[in-house]
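Batch manifest, entry 17 of 40.
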Amino acid sequence: MDTVLHERKQLILKILVNEYISKAMPVSSEAIAKNYSLGLSPATVRNEMARLEESGYVVKPHTSAGSIPTDKGYRYYVESLLDIKEVPQEEQSRIRRTFHEENREVDELFHLAATLLAGLSQYFALVTLPKAPKTRLKHVEVVLIKENVAMTILVLDQARLRQQLTTFDYPVTQKELSLAADRLNEMCEGLTAAEMLRKKSEFSRLEEQVLEMVLSLMDAGAGLEFSEAYVDGMRHILDHPELARNEKTKGLLELVEGKTLEKRILPRLSTKRGIQVIIGEENPEEAMKHCSIIISRYGVPGDIGGIIGLLGPTRMNYSWAISVTRFLTSILSEFTIEIYGSHNLVRTKYRINN
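Output type: structure tokens
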């Protein structure tokens, strides 16, 4: 923050924000003076509250009411006054055991992360599947369906499958298709689309056509910075009185149910690591301007990874929400490295196992 509040104003603002987060009721200067041993008279607390209001950190929703934080007040609180407590060790151990249960599919782990994050925070949670900055080929197979129609099955380095039917303008056999696929696997395993394209002249006519199918499938998701997302906790949005009563909640629900929320959030995400907090009016969408978002990247820096985030009211318990987001980020980073490793590790494992 550009402005540094006097210590006394900081203390009063911190109390006010904590009280409002806890009770969802405007906080009066009399209540602060009575309930907290600040060594200040009610008149002094009232004067300091008035200065905070003049500076835009708090506002009175009604003339005779107490005060509530503004977006500016929350921003100062998050950046300068927040005490973040770690997730209790017992809870950490329980979550780690849940993730280490046997026979879980990869997708299930990330869906589980969204469910756990929503349950722990009591806010709406979003977790994207891991995605590499550049998609790389792991394996391709081509299966003949009928005389000149084949199914191309592509395995990419995020352990994701893509497939597509292709019609040839001449008869082909399964043996020819298998040989063409084997040649591509030998020449192109671990390469990006651009790297594969540079090898085009080295292939036969059939191999080149299979290559074009592979490139088409790889390009299908190349424009997306992040992969598909798992979400959970929609029910929690309506548990908060300011969201349940807000006329704009309908617009927020439409964003969530239309699966476009992540498209509005992700362009705002910095490339830096660590937790990011977007508060109220900082949100780009009108329907989200009464909400706050906590978001971070997980995975291997500069390599495969995704994002994890929470959405709730601006009256969010920032300390706990940041704590659980940070913990789940570390869990997903560990699992991303364990499952995928770096691109080099992925390619090495694939060669050994195949």
